Amino acid sequence: MRKLSGFSKTLVYFYVLAMGVFHLxxxxxxxxxxYLQRSIxxxxxxxxxxxxxxxxxxxxxxxxxxxxxxxxxxxxxPGVYSMVNYTAITERIQQIDPLTTAQFVxxxxxxILLLEGTRRIVGLPLSLxxxxxxxxxxxxx
Length: 141
Description:
Blueprint: H1 6-29, H2 34-52, H3 66-84, H4 86-90, H5 101-121, H6 124-139
């Protein structure tokens, strides 16, 4: 895990503080519908995997490289999209209404970023197992 300092540390501190306030608010005032609640939670948490955990053991631990900031912003995109387009997504009739191109691309991007975030935090074995099950879901009969 990275040991941040300076502006990065302050930015992550307030980001995590905002996430905590959101979760405390929804715990007290009542949760959103589960799909929306999970989308918001994932949009908060997934970018932290790229900011706090380096891509390799040899990567810099004192600062966050630009590519990790870019991955963090991209990791928030599927969650933000699902929040903005919540009604259209939940009212879509599965297997009848086709996915939009944006939904398809963001879905694939989300799976890839989740696997990479899992690899960074937990390790390669769990990512490989998850990828194997995802491939089985697509191609297994």
